[in-house]
Amino acid sequence: MCGIFGVMDKRRRMMDGSGIRQALSIMNERGSGEGAGYAAYGIYPDYRDCYALHVFLDNACESKAVVDATLEQWGTIEHDEAIPTYDQPNFRAACTPWRYFFRPDPSLAPGSATPEKDIITTLVMQINACQNGAEIVSSGKNVGVFKAGGAGSRPETVADFYRIEDYEGYIWLAHNRYATASPGKWERPDPFNLHDWSVVENGKITTYGTNRRYIESFGYTCSNSTDSEVITCLIDLLVRRHGLDIDLAIRALAPPYWDEIDRMPESKQKLNRALRFAYGPATMNGPFTVVAANPDMMVGFTDRGKLRPMVVGECADRLYISSEEAAIRAMEPKVESITMPAAGEPVIGRVAP
Amino acid sequence: MSSNLGSMPLRYRVTIDREQCMECERCINNCSYGVFRRDGDRILINSRKCTACHRCLAYCPRDAIMLEEQPCDYRSHPVWTRATREAIYNQARTGKIILAGMGSVANLPVIFDHLMLDACQVTTPPTDPLREPVELRTYLGKKPSHLDLCRNSNGDVELATELAPNLMLETPVMLGHMSYGAISLNAQVSMARAAKETGTYMGTGEGGLHAGLYPYQDRMIVQVASGRFGVNIDYLERGAAIEIKLGQGAKPGIGGHLTGEKVSKDVSRTRMIPEGSDAISPAPHHDIYGIEDLSQLVRAIKEATEWKKPVFAKVAAVNNTAENVAAVARSSVDAVVIDGFRGGTGAAPRVFRDHVGIPIEVAVASADRELRRQGLRNEVSLIACGSIRESADVVKAIALGADAVYIGTAALAAMGCRVCGNCYQGLCPWGIATQRPDLVERLDPDVASKQVANLIHAWTLEITELMGAAGINSIESLRGNRDRLRGYMLDENMLNVLDVEPVGA
Going by CATH, does the domain composed of B139-146+161-171+214-253+290-421+458-502 fall within 3.40.50.300? Predict the structure, then answer.
């Protein structure tokens, strides 16, 4: 059991992190106080054309040297600095959070339609798979993940440690963790991010093995043993590399039952059967609600039986997706509509072009 | 020619409890091996002819018959076992290859029995199949690696990719290839009806397709083996799919032999060979001396059937199975069948049956891994066979990487077979592995088909429950999901090959 929350402003109007901090802490009963995290889009306007790499370093010396050397091989570091943090009582920082603003050299991925993202993908997988004291926790343009794990990592504490109220974003995702495995690891709580996409999940998929083996056959490496890492890679594969629209990608991950497909009109039947044929090993099973975002959209979807909650709120240009209605109301007391989509019914919100 | 060996110790001893026996003679009538005979007011027993087929026991109304295996001891010896000594006596007498029926009797550990299945507790809830759907529907055949889509005039997304034909199974259990000739027509008809009733498919084996099976042809996978018996365009067109048999788990690397005595008029017509002639399948296909020849044959068959039917290829599980499967997967086939070394057979040389090949568990796991490594896994289906004994084996085989399984011996057992291993004698008292009309008549397809269907239904229910308990509601989510298995008392090398964690990990 975890608590997840997402909010998006369709007109890209900025929200600072104080609102989502409050929303997440309302759901403290859903977490174990051992991990929380936030992701925000739009926070680095000064470096909007650089890939912002948030890295957890064991120390700012040897571990950092590894990252510096790797990045310099693959492109140019425009700027790097420690992520500002503020000591909190009864909370111990297990690593040094650092950020790089990085420009990959597209000529190093010849023949790719998305050379920069291919390089970033490779870099993230390479650095995270090695025991080098460095974990890249977010790697997109104008986006950053702030998270922490271990005793005392309540949502408010993590928010205050990073002072997320100092950041302004137009999409925010957040995760209140009920730890089951490796509670002390800082990279384990959601959100998980890979360049464009960030994912928070409430659930535990029973298909981790199938999904991971499938995604790894396309060159991804999953080193974190978390669902959201695999889910992020699956979305990246389906949307960026296979060119599926997000609604079809979600349909591939959480497809309709065969009985439902059998009842569809012929052309829809063909399309849905083909999706299950092609992406059977990507299908996620077990209980989950996922909220995912990229710079242009925020989506929410559940397993086919909807074993985990998903509540959707709307208020003017704001779209909220949350584990609980109370969290939406904590951030937006005047919320105009609250809905609970049926199982298998995704929620897709797009930022106005 | 005589020998000085005399007679061997009895394999089985049959006894009759004379107080129970009512001398109804059912044992005499039922035993086709001639164990029982009437002599005056007594029923006499010749235990030497007994095969332990249990037909007499099953039909004795008084439970008066008892059977004992190996009633005579040899001096015990860890190296010179009874089996090795008796094989030597047999070959010293005959100078021949020893034939044996059914699967391997080598006393090696069964890997399936050392794999434990997972179930959900609190971090994920189990799915209750009584309340929520658990999908066992399985499609076998080529799958696209990605989809090409287009938009129609209404702006709706439509599929531009042409899907290859697939077989749709309601349950991932199929009935394996056992030919007409090796088994009786009644046995085949029984299984064909069961396949139709349970929404699955059945293999014809290498014996052609008897007209009696035409009503079930949309449930038949017709086999093309190295002898090409019974193969013509009509045969190919009748099948739902076509399977090229390149090898068999019970006897990898060698062909097959149906003795002339079994080639009755009907068998001769179905196989398209002269009555009474031996049907010998060569070891290789003489038009496949290299992998490129296989892909020509696959395409020729597809061309002949207008690309409307999936084509499977079956290989035996041997050392380099992964490489073989990857090679076959590139040959335009839609599914690859892997037959493990414990797979059954009507007749195989004992030395092959017990010594050649590798276990299906390992073969499937390594083939699945190699296909994934080469990016081919989801494009072909993988079918496992060779000693699938129960529903748990099905679940484990799928978790190790199979899409579906074939069962052979289990289906025969559902019709009465007691796995006595004397199929090659052609005297099967259960009417299964025989062509003798009076014996074949004993197997009533109305009854036997129900028993086979019951077995498949029962396994399907058990698979559904096991998947539900593991929180998995569609079969493709189980496929290759080794995280849901744990190895119990398997060594580290074996765990690495299987890509399975040990219990407790």
Answer: no
